[in-house]
Request: fold
Amino acid sequence: MSEYVKQVILTGAMGAGKSTVLTALAQQGVACVPEPARRILSAQRAIGGRGVPETDPRLFCELMLAVAVEEFREMTRRVYEELGYDITEMPRKTVKDRTALVLSKTGEPNTP
Reply:
């Protein structure tokens, strides 16, 4: 069996069942990036925000893209962690300090 996993983007009109299919796939263990429109619409309407398609379609698209990118990053992080990778955020320190941090995570000796 191939190690390659094809990525699929679901599209369709409101009410077509995209969220329902994503939920069903997630329940079967398929890694999914949730479709953000429903949450954005709910949040924007709750606060009387402009980020809804009928008021400001561009803002709505920008909000959806921002959420989708963040969720993709989070899913990618989870996959790497499941594969045994240690995800390390680089602090704003000297190169020596950052190098020491990476070496401490690899178990390599930190030589000056």
